[in-house]
Design brief:
Length: about 425
Amino acid sequence: MNSLSRVMAATAAAAAALGFAGAAPAQQKEVMIGAQCDRTGPTQIVGIAICPAQQDYIDLVNSKGGIDGYKIKYNELDNEYKVPPAVEEYERQKGEGVVSMMIYGTPQTQALNQKLQEDKIPGTSPGFGISASADGSRFPYLFPVAATYWSQAAAAVQFFKDKAEGSLKGKKIAYVYYDNPAGHEPLPILEDLQKAEGFELRSFAVPPPGVEMGAQVIDITQRYRPDFVIDHLFGRSPSVAMKEYKRAGFPLSKVIGLVWASAEADIQAAGGWQVAEGYHTLQFAGAGDDYPVRQDLKAMYKSQGKEPPKAMDDTVIYNRGILNAAVHVEAIRNALKATGGKQPTGADVKRGFEQIHDFTLGGLVPPLKITAADHEGGGWVQIFQVHDGKLVKETDWFRGYPEVVAAAVKKAE
């Protein structure tokens, strides 16, 4: 074959290929969300429920056609609650084109915050991370999107103040915390409130992995004898604490667990509902099954001929996974509206987060209002109590000392 024949053949082949491609159905456009979510490691008791929930919600949205013609691709990696793998995985996910990131873990949030800003990729840290990141002007690409540790600590003190008929003066509060950056995070707010309200505060550090707490509990229950206890624990340590308090004869009605010490899995690991009777739990998403989105997810599984996953049984953690995925979807939806349907960038999605207003998912999510100034969304929580084998809601959505939290955010370095 001479050179002219080869050119003509190549041209014909190219034309045929183009014709074939034109006849094929157009491929659906995709937008990718990155997620770091631990199904292994010391916090897997959380990950094995929250990770499937995030995937399930994305699948639900895709089953209904996605967002404005875009399919959502969920890119999940497990960092085992370790910072170096989290940084490596972030770089990998960035290279694959994610437009937003679900972070997992306070140490990981601290390590990734600057990278998010440099790369203009918005990241969420719901109920953990850097409390000062509520200030969107100083942390433009980090979104707590739920009550930070400062808001949680303030809400716990507000709850105890209400229990004490409006005054904590002279009362003793024990703060029991997992000894890592997350555990230390609420201390500034507690110290501010101690001065303002006149209560005595003593903190008790629990070394990782938090499975040995006998000495701390003896110190708390037999020596300090507090009126109230705030547990800021996670992994296996919340269940260990409950068992130890029970063994020491300390009433769990005096204890409140911040959000990562507040799940059904923690109660089951402690020995069940009878062991945990009276225990108060702080939540930034609704607990239980009575939410339309959960029924939609069950219907999705039924339509596939499958049973809902076991992860749904831990409603506290699973529901938080729904919240996390849902705010990313809503931010992307807002971004697509702003771009007229063009492929959104991370900067577009960042602005989409800042337009999430009055988004409640049928009551599962508090009345979030995220703005360029407030990336926390208000700092709303609910409190539930373990009673007769279930979590019973004690309060509606509320905020504790919002002015104190706002002042702390403003002065934070």
